[in-house]
């Protein structure tokens, strides 16, 4: 690791040690299928329970931890590999929750995508020549970004997009609305979830707040994702905290992403000016960012005095 890590603060050295513990070569949990390439270094979501095989690598965990474990410690190549590997599995406009080396990724997280976008932004700002990442070609695990194909088929990884194009796809799909039912839905995928929990819906209401909103009471779309499993307690299939609606951390990450791409476009470093909403109208990133800015406090601020409640939603 760079000398500044070795001579850095005690906290930085602890991050470095932790990165050695949880980021390493694990054949059963490669970032990509072996048929696609030989990348086998991956980050564990936590030891010892997430050590190997498909349960090792989780989208939200990787990208929450990526700055501290891989960028602060100078492991930029590993950070880039994780960003590109998850980007290659973009489907339905979402980054997967469980990666499973890209073989059978699961898209039951509404927040992993936004943590990925934040990690891309942080990498671009942190690494030398970081913005070059936006032009990096990424082979797509699912060529059309929608249809499931087997990982060893000729179609898998047969098309490519740049990271900038993937970012645009994420934002466009959210603006248009995301509605799908998880592939292989049923007890083999999740033995506890109720049938309606496999339906994933995400949308943006540009007429009011501009917030990304979604989910339902039967699925866990964010990091508070404990699904009830007890028949005795009567909570099987009942999420501990479904958090359907506009979750504050998703809105915060959304605001960060919109501000970033709007500024990049203004500098001529991002080729897309905005998105097309579900009603066919064009919304620039600058306008979308400003809408979220205007809406945020009205919908999230809790006033000190109940006399002010009428001013907030």
TrEMBL record:
Gene label: GDB1_3
Organism: Linderina macrospora
Protein name, per record: Bifunctional 4-alpha-glucanotransferase/amylo-alpha-1,6-glucosidase
């Amino acid at each position: 690791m760079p000398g500044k890590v070795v001579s850095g603060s005690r906290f930085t050295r602890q991050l470095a040690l932790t990165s050695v513990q949880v980021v390493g070569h694990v054949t059963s949990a490669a970032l990509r299928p072996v048929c696609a390439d030989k990348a086998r270094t991956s980050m564990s979501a936590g030891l010892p329970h997430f050590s190997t095989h498909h349960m090792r690598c989780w989208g939200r965990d990787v990208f929450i931890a990526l700055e501290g474990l891989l960028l602060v410690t100078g492991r930029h190549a590993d950070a880039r590999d994780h960003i590109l590997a998850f980007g290659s599995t973009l489907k339905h406009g979402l980054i997967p929750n469980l990666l499973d080396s890209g073989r059978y990724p699961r898209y039951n997280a509404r927040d992993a995508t936004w943590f990925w976008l934040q990690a891309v932004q942080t990498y671009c700002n942190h690494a030398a020549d970081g913005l070059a990442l936006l032009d990096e070609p990424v082979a797509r695990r699912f060529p059309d970004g929608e249809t499931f194909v087997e990982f060893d088929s000729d179609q898998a990884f047969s098309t490519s997009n740049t990271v900038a194009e993937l970012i645009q796809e994420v934002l466009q799909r959210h603006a248009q609305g995301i509605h799908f039912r998880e592939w292989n839905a049923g007890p083999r995928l999740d033995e506890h979830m109720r049938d309606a929990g496999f339906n994933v819906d995400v949308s943006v209401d540009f007429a009011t707040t501009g917030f990304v909103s979604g989910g339902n009471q039967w699925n866990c779309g964010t990091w508070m994702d404990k699904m009830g499993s007890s028949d005795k307690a009567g909570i099987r299939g009942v999420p501990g905290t479904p958090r359907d609606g506009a979750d504050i951390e998703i809105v915060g990450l959304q605001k960060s992403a919109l501000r970033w791409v709007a500024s990049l476009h203004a500098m001529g470093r991002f080729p897309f000016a905005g998105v097309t909403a579900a009603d066919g109208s064009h919304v620039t990133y600058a306008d979308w960012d400003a809408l979220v800015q205007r809406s945020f406090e009205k919908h999230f601020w809790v006033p000190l005095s109940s006399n002010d409640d009428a001013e907030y939603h």
